[in-house]
Structure formats: C-alpha cells, structure tokens
Amino acid sequence: MKVFINKRIPEAGIKMLEEAGLEIIFPEKENLSYEEWLNYCKNTDTILSIGTEFTYDKNFFEACPDVKAIALYSVGFDHVDTKEATLKNIPIGNTPDVLSRATSDVAFLLMQSVARRASYNFGKVKEGSWGAFDPLHALGQELYGKTLGIFGLGRIGYEMAEKSKKAFGMNIIYHNRHHNEEAEKELGATYVSFEDLIRNSDVLSVHANFTPEHKELFNKSLFEQMKSNAIFINTARGGFHNQKDLYQALVDQKIWGAGLDVTNPEPMAADDPILQLSSVCILPHIGSATVEARNGMARLAAGNIIAFSENKKMPNCANPEVYSSRLS
Fold first, then answer.
1. Domain 2-97+291-323 carries which CATH code?
2. pTM of the predicted model, to two decimals?
3. CA-to-CA distance for 221 and 79, rounded, in angstroms?
4. Distance of alpha carbon 232 from alpha carbon 241, whole angstroms
5. Taking a C-beta distance cutoff of 8 angstroms, is the pair 145, 120 a contact?
6. Is 174 helix (H, G, I), strand (E, B) or coil?
7. What is the mean pLDDT of the chain?
8. Same fold, 2-97+291-323 and 99-282
9. What's the rounded mean pLDDT across residues 12-17?
10. Which are the catalytic amino acids?
11. Of 64, 217, 284, 322, which has fewest CB within 10 angstroms of its CB?
C-alpha cells in the first residue's frame, strides 16, 4: 500500500510506517502547488496529510478515486468534507488529545503575555527605547481572581482552565454543546449561556472545534458586548474571529487585549495594524510545536494509516460513521 506524505514528519511516525511494510512517497519539494499536490494524491492509496492549505472536498474525492483513507497530522478537520468522505467510504483519521497540554500551554502563555503587555515591552528592549521609569506607561493587569470564560471545554479547554485555576485562582465559566461534568466537579466550572459567556468573561479563550457556522463568530457585535477589560484568546482556528473587527474593538477600547496563535487570514500580513497595538501578542500557530506533541502526532497519524492497511478501524477517526456503512 502506498502512503503519500506531503511534508516531513518526525522520524517516530516514519519508522512505524516502514516497519509496517508500507511504501512511503514524499514529494520532491515541500511547497507544492495545488496541481502538483493533486497529482501525487491521484497516484496513492492513502494520504498522511500535513497542513490545511489544501481542501479535501467533493472535487478532490472525484479527482482522486483511488484514495482509500486519509490520516491528518492535526486534531482539527475543518478542511475536510467528512460527509463526502463518508459517502465515498473513506475514513479520516486525526490526532486528538496528544497535543492538548502543548496547545493549552500556548493559550496560557498568551493570556499572561497580553495581560502584562509582554510583546510590546520586549519590543521596547530590542529597540533600545527602554526609557526612564514611568509609573503610568503601558500598565498591564493582574489575573488573580478574574473570570476565565472557555468557549469549547474539551481537553484543551480543560487544561487551560486547570492551569488558570491553580495559578491565579480564576473563576471558570464555559459554554459547550454539553455539560462537562469533570470540569464542574474538579474545577468548580459553571456552565453558562453563550450570551453570559460573552458578557461576564475577563478572559475569553476559544477552544472549540471549528465548523462553518462558526465563521467569524467573534465579530464587531460580540466584541461590543464584552467587558472593556476583557482579553480575547484564540488558539483554535483563525476563522473564529473577524480580525478587522478585533483590531477596531481594541482601538476603540471595547475590549482590552488579544492573544492569537491563529489568525484570519493565516498567515497574516506583516504590516497588519493590529501588530502595532501594545496589548496584543500574536504567535505563528505554534500550539503543538513541542518535540513531545509533534512526536505524538506522528505516532497517532501513522497508527491510523497502519490500522487501515491491516483492515482495522482507525484508532482515532473523525468520521467513525464510515465504519457503520462498511459493516452494513
């Protein structure tokens, strides 16, 4: 069975695939055009897919009828039409849980960096414009006893909430499709309506799975309903927020600050005016960028491919209903 891998991944995953006797196909270069990528996909049985720049939609599945399975090197699968994949009897693997701690670490880092204007002040040091002591210049805010609102309290959101609770004694409120009983019991988290989450959060951190109905959910209207001292954190998907509205909300002091590991668009322009604001910290989508997390992702992605090659159910599957259709 042939496995097309569009970019290099940690050796842990490559070794697993080789030991399973699978034929691995790497492209001659990494930054493929859409046409080049599609040609590789047309000539393979399975795909281990890195990145979200290409979409697995109806057109893809029609153009690549020989593809039988796709293993994503990510938790999110919003760039895949899972309904169409299921209709084509194609399982879509993903890599949940293994990067929860690393991603929540970044959310926690962003919250603190924004609260203390760390990026802005670091820039002052690099510019050599440290200046004399000014009791009123670029003051931050403390997080002790503040309210952290979590939109999407799954594993990553739970890790973020736990860190914030233990470090700063923050009160945890959240909005989910379902109650998270573990968070309510262990962290004293309170389930609230989406409207109350927006109005009552001192820090609002996004950790939900992105779906089309979430597109630019956090926009001018919602930012205007948030607290004036609120910090907006997004480490999920850039599509959750309207970046121009976010910038304007910050300029108009509708909210206090923003920390982003994902942007809209992504990558963002180097001259985006939001980068000039003192209460903003933006990172280049590094949520899972640790040795431990990336190795774990490689193992899970490879494990999904190997399971498929052995005619077994993928251990981590984004469209598990595909197996019902296979059995029926």
1. 3.40.50.720
2. 0.93
3. 27
4. 10
5. no
6. strand
7. 96
8. yes
9. 98
10. 237, 266, 285
11. 284
| Strands, sheet with 2-5, edge to edge from the N-terminal-most edge strand | 23-25, 2-5, 46-49, 69-72, 92-93
- Per-residue tokens: 248: 């304007």
> Quick one: what percent of the chain has pLDDT higher than 70?
99
Residue with tokens 């309904």: 83
Q: In this predicted structure, what is the pLDDT of residue 327?
A: 44
Partner residues linked to 92 by β-bridges: 70
Residue 5: strand, helix, or coil: strand
CA-to-CA dists, residue 323 to 79, 84, 86, 264, angstroms:
21, 14, 9, 35
Flag whether pLDDT at 20 surpasses 90. Answer: yes
Amino acid at 269: A
Where in the chain are the domains? Answer: 2-97+291-323, 99-282
Fold of 99-282: Rossmann fold (3.40.50)
SS3 303: helix
Q: How far apart are the C-alpha atoms of 70 and 52, rounded to whole Å?
A: 13
